[in-house]
Write a structure and sequence with these properties.
single chain; about 450 residues; alpha+beta; seven-stranded antiparallel β-sheet; 11 helices
Amino acid sequence: MTDPVIEETEIDISGDGGVKKKILKEGEGEEFPSKGCRVSLHYTGTLLDGTQFDSSVERNVPFEFELGRESVIKAFDMGVATMRKGEKCILTCAPEYAYGAAGSRPNIPPNATLKFELEMLSWELEDLSPERNKGILRCILKASDKKRTPNEFAHVHVHLIGKHEGRVFEEREVKFNLGEGATADVVPGVEIALEKFHQYETSRLILKPEFAFGAEGNEKLCIPPNATVEYTVTLREFERAQDTWKMDPAESLEQARFFKEKGAKYIKEEKYQVAIKMFKLSNDCLSNCNEDAANTLKTAVFLNKALCYQKLGEPYEVKQACDTVLEIDSKSVKAYYRRGLAHVALGYLEKALEDFKEVQQLEPTNKAAQNQIVLLKQKLKEATEKERKIYANMFAKFADADKQREETERNQQGTDVLSSCGEWNAPEDTMRNVHPNIVMLDNVDDP
């Protein structure tokens, strides 16, 4: 059964008559693919005289490309962006929206106007997640002609509508600084996506649990654990933060102190993830500062980062932050102590003991380090004793196995001897029982 033809005039989608579209079959739903989506479609291309020059239909292999990345002719980027799923249409493309004055030899002559019959099969939404694991998917519902986007720590004003399985769980206007969204109860996925938004853009975001409410969910909003949620986000306005590379050293140092103080404030509020972001921004600013001035502040920044990671139960990150501090200040008591705790958590007890001994050497009255040393020595002693017992048991088992093997070998040897001697060494009665016709030599008189 063929699709019904829709009698419609051509639509000028380029605004200058360069790309015209005629719908052959209406598509489904209300959404269109947006820039960054990976689309899958069939096409058949012809010249105006009807000569076919290419067809994915005949190859039976759909054509795929990322929309809006200038990887195809202009007409495709423009036309496909207007198609719904399942839609069929014909695009008429002037040379400047196709292959231009050069054409594409041998099949497409110079300055050729082309016709393409398109069928939209499907598309995948644009992936904005940092690891490209489809954790943050975007579909642009209302595009913007603005070019600028917010940068890290920009002040944004957004409208949010959150949905879970079709139920609206929140709708609100909110203003916050990117990087501090948690203070306004904005989920991480929205924050990350906003750095790709243009002013006045409205987009639908699909967020996996790690970019939304995580394994805990949100009881207040009735979001269950490990839930995928959807947000419709409108970026109303924003003010970009000053780029650190544009600051002079004095401005950079001042900004670094500002972010460091904000981080310290968030530690007091137990907002450790946000605090870590502030310390990262502070350290970024320090790259443009005098080394001596920067190092003093840098030690404080990384000690605070270590504290945050310690609170979050991430010992490897604690160790790395403390290593950075000790590269600058080899006599930092706090760095040795926090790294010692990280080594304990990682199971490196001997390294931990070394760190706490460094603390004790630098600060002999430090009772916390003294207590850790006592505990670690006891743990190491217990570990050594346990190890000794394991090896003792292991050697005992080996000895038992050797003894058992020797006994088995002796028994086997005895059996082999008996078997080889046969009837000559057997008791006399046995011989008679086995061979009743044999006359024993000792009972026979000599002839």
